[in-house]
Each structure stands twice: as structure tokens, then as C-alpha cells.
Amino acid sequence: MSHDKVVLQVKNAVYEYRNKYQTVKAVNDFSFSFEKGKLYAVVGKSGSGKTTLLSMLAGLDVPKKGSIYYKEQDTKEINLDKYRRDDVTVIFQDFNLFPLLTAIENVMYPLHLKGIKDKEAREIAAKKMESVGLDSLFQKRYPSMLSGGEQQRVAIARALASDASVILADEPTGNLDSENGKNIIGLLKELAHSGNYCVIVVTHDLDIASDADQVLNMKDGKLVFSE
After folding, report:
1. Which of 7, 70, 72, 180 has the least C-beta neighbours within 10 A?
2. pTM (2 decimals)?
3. Distance of alpha carbon 186 from its chain centroid, rounded?
């Protein structure tokens, strides 16, 4: 492992919450280093802790014990709003596109948040859409006019437009048929390698996971093995 490539490092992270009957350790002493330029798949049964791990990597939660470091900075000590806006982006199973915005306006959204003017934002967004295989024909279409696979490509283009170095994907193929799912994972892998992104996908689909550079298997909040 090359230390200068490590972008996210999880050290002995524990995340627990209390339900009516007991304290649940959703993530239990998890350690791993994620590098740029790679696609990782995190697999495990429901309740294994993979979604909680993703939530901490996204800066939506911080570990109760242990630490997560982004470029050697502890996420407990950084501005998490800024981290979520600039450094990390999340792609969801249900695409989370704005229905009343066209495809290109959806991709322009994170650019507008950064104060980039309309003309420049549109040019950047068009390039990002092209990089995920959507040409100018798709730009003016609304999400309801697109297939599931096309909507997920728009969501990936929007993630790329945010210019984050870490792309997290929560079951990104869950609403797609197997062929479209394979295509989306292939696209994420290609983006990781060519764009030097760190891409971390949570999935229950072992067929999809097998295309990743590295598979992390979680059970009871622990990393059981990685291959």
C-alpha cells in the first residue's frame, strides 16, 4: 500500500447506538485504509454495519471510539459541512435527482452551490455528462424521461461535478437490472482508475462486488476479510 495514495483511513472505529433492548455496535473496531485510483466494494448481510460505515465515511456521523482520517485529518476535528460539500460525495440507490430540473441542471447543482456562474457550470456539467456516456441529447431531458441506468449516470455525473476525491455509492445498482448494474459498476471502476478517485460501493450483490479492485466483507460490524 502506497501511503501517499491513502485518502481515507479508518482506525479502530466503533459506532454504537441504543435500541429499546440493548446497545448495538453497528461498527465494531473496524480498521482499513482506502486509496485513490481504486474501486472498493463493501459487502455483508443486512445489519453487518456497511451502511453505518458509509455514513461515517460520508461525514454524516463520527465514530464513538477510534477515528476516521481524511488526508490525515481526523473527521472529528474538521468542518464536516465543508468536507461533505468539497471532499466526499454520495450516490444513492434511488438516484435522488431533482424531478423538476433537467439532467444537465441536476449536474450543475453542486457547481451552483460553490458559486460557479451559470455559463461555466453548464460547460463543466456537459463534460461530466459526456464522461459517463450521456451526449447532448440527454441534457434537456427530465429524470422521468430517462431510464434507471440513465438516471444513475446523471447522478454519477453530478457526483463528479462536485470535484470530490472520494465517491461513496450506497447500493448504486439496487434499482437496476443486472446488465445496467454491471455497466454502472464498470463505469465507476473506469472513473476510479482514469480520474484517480477513491470509489467505495456498498452492495449486497456479490456478482457486482466481484468487479471491484478490492472486496471488504463485513459481519457484526467487523471487517471479516478483504480480498
Report:
1. 72
2. 0.92
3. 15
